[in-house]
Amino acid sequence: MIRSLFAKLRAEASFIVLLAVAAAGAWLYVQYRQMAADRDGAVRVAEKICAGAGVEWAATKGAARGTLCARRVTALARYERDVAQQSAQLLADEIKAASARTLRDNLAARDAAEAARAAALRMEAADEKADHRDIVDYEWTSAVNGAAGLRAPTR
Amino acid sequence: MALPGCAPRPADLPPPPVVVKVDPPKPPADLLTCADRPAGLPEDRDLVAQIPRTLRAGIIRLAKAFAANAQRVDRLTNWISPGTCPAGAKSADD
Question: With contacts defined as CB-CB under 8 Å, which chain B residues touch A96?
Answer without folding.
Answer: none
